[in-house]
């Protein structure tokens, strides 16, 4: 019903929320709507291509920015979420809690060393699929 980013940006929030109904996490719908408006009205319809710029979009944090940058723009960025931490900790034989700051730093660094620099998006997607 909203096939383009312009259609989404110009839709009312009520329309967006009604289309999202039943999916849960309504803040995601609101963030998606605000991102579309930012891109259309403030960025002349140009989606940011750099990870640092992606993080300026509403609701886009480190993980999503890394995923988008690697998958859409072939940037060498490791997308690390809870599933990725579990995959890497098992692969690397790390037996410390994955939510400790030192383990997160270690796993993120090791993931940087492992990422396929020729296909970073495919690599991140494979880790996501494996973690799921």
What's the topology here?
Blueprint: H1 5-10, H2 13-20, H3 26-42, H4 51-54, H5 62-73, H6 82-92, H7 101-114, H8 120-131
Helix pairs in contact: 2-3, 5-8, 6-7, 6-8
Short description:
The chain has 132 residues and is mainly alpha-helical. Helices cover 64% and strands 0% of the residues.
Task: Tag the structure with descriptive keywords.
132 residues; 0% strand; mainly alpha; elongated
Structure description:
InterPro entries: DNA_glycosylase (IPR011257), HhH-GPD_domain (IPR003265), HhH_base_excis_C (IPR023170), MIG/MutY (IPR044298). With 132 residues, the protein is mainly alpha-helical. Helices cover 64% and strands 0% of the residues. The protein has helices at 5-10, 13-20, 26-42, 51-54, 62-73, 82-92, 101-114, 120-131. The mean pLDDT is 96. It starts with a helix and ends with a helix. It is elongated.
The helicity comes to 55-70%
**How many helices in DSSP terms?**
8
**H-E string:** HHHHHHHH
Q: Characterize the main sheet.
A: none
The whole-number mean of residue pLDDT values reads: 96
Number of strands: 0
Instruction: Report the β-strand fraction as a percent range.
Output: under 5%
Tell me the distance between the termini.
29 Å
Q: Find the structural class using helix and strand composition.
A: mainly alpha
Sequence stretches where pLDDT stays below 50 over 5 or more residues: none
- Assembly level: single chain
Rg from alpha-carbon coordinates: 17 Å
Outline: elongated
Cofactor: [4Fe-4S] cluster
GO biological process, one term: base-excision repair
Family: Belongs to the Nth/MutY family.
Protein name: HhH-GPD domain-containing protein
């Amino acid at each position: 019903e909203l096939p383009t980013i312009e259609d989404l940006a110009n839709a009312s929030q009520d329309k967006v929320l009604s289309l999202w109904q039943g999916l849960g996490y309504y803040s995601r719908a609101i963030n998606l709507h605000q991102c579309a408006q930012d891109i259309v009205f403030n960025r002349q319809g140009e989606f940011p291509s750099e990870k640092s710029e992606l993080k300026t979009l509403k609701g886009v944090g480190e993980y999503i920015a890394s995923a988008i940058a690697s998958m859409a723009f072939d940037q060498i960025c490791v997308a690390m979420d809870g599933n990725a931490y579990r995959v890497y900790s098992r692969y690397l034989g790390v037996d410390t809690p994955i939510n400790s700051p030192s383990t997160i730093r270690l796993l993120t660094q090791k993931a940087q060393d492992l990422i396929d620099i020729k296909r970073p998006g495919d690599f991140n997607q494979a880790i996501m699929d494996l973690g799921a």
